[in-house]
Amino acid sequence: MKRVGKVAALAGLVALFATGCSGDEVLRFGWPVGVTEQADKMRWLWTWSVIAALVVGVIVWGLIFWASAFHRKKKNADPTELPRQFQYNVPLELFCVIVPLVMVCVLFFFTATTENQVLDKVDDPDVTINVTAFQWNWEFDYPDEAKDATGQMIRTVGSSTEIPLLVVPVGKTIQYNLRSTDVIHSFWVPEFHFKRDVFPYPEKNNQDSSFQNTIDKSGSFVGRCAELCGTYHSAMNFEVRALPDNLYTQYIQLRTQVNPATGVPNTASEALSAMNCGELCTPHAVTTQPFNTDRTAR
Fold it and tell me: Based on the domain organization, do 150 and 44 belong to the same domain?
């Protein structure tokens, strides 16, 4: 038994170090990396749930091993002798009922607490964005920002040849107001670890059509429609471009100004090009590309 224990311990160390995972990757237990504060809260719920499950698993495995190793049938045992019986053992039965019940209640408490934190909303978000889904693209409006040179709301609309860029600031509370003009769509950014269906107006069954989050990492993140919505559902992508607050402010200022070359306010691509701030200001989507809508193309 001593030798078996040493071999098992060595195998465990080899399995741990051979993976090449960092401490953070090990504690995530396969949970994907998120870019919002809300995603971090969900990750911690997942991590501690897995740890609790492993603790229970170790106990169960230990009991199975203990029963198999020390309570198996002995050689030369009386074949008519029955093993020790535990039926009608009230303390053991209460233990087997109460402990799982307590575990379920604890898990429910932390799940409900995390859900409330993820869905929580502040009364005065820093940025508000109206997200309009339509077959088969997206429109992003900024109702609380300054109007452009023509007095219109800053707006970005995708087309079959251009992926729309949803430009947002890092470290600010952002509210997304979702609305569809036709069928049911779904607003999904994998790195947000959050998805919400987008319903046509008026919403049914008290459907909550808005949510808030805070992005804590600059970068570009692909967004998708996650609800089958027709022929070109797979082409209905967008990109979230998260900029530091100073760059976001500059972007909004450029969106309100007229482009001398075109005589109309700058588009999202033109504003990002004018900023000239490296990969973050790439004027076109870098996480996805337009889908060829020519059904005869080969």
Answer: no
